[in-house]
């Protein structure tokens, strides 16, 4: 999974795909230019 932190509302957003359009689910800020961080979710 990939995680992006919204610079506007500080909310964490997760996706399985880091490319393409990425919009904050909380405030609808465009996070496309925010660097994605890979997370280890091996549950
Ligand atoms: Zn946001």
Characterization of the model:
This protein has 43 residues and is mainly β. It has one domain. Helices cover 0% and strands 23% of the residues. It has strands at 2-5, 12-15, 37-38. Strands 2-1-3 form a three-stranded antiparallel β-sheet, with no helix packed on it. The model has no long low-confidence stretch (mean pLDDT 93). The structure holds zinc ion. Zinc ion (ZN) binds at residues 6, 8-9, 11, 24, 26-27, 29. The site of zinc ion has 8 residues, from loops.
- The count of β-strands is 3
Share of helix among residues? under 10%
The span between the termini is 12 Å
Radius of gyration: 10 Å
Task: Return the structural class.
Answer: mainly beta
Low-confidence stretches: none
In short:
With 43 residues, this protein is mostly beta strands.
Task: Please give the structural blueprint.
Blueprint: E1 2-5, E2 12-15, E3 37-38
The protein binds zinc ion.
Summary tags:
0% helix, binds zinc ion, 43 residues, globular, 3-stranded antiparallel sheet, mainly beta
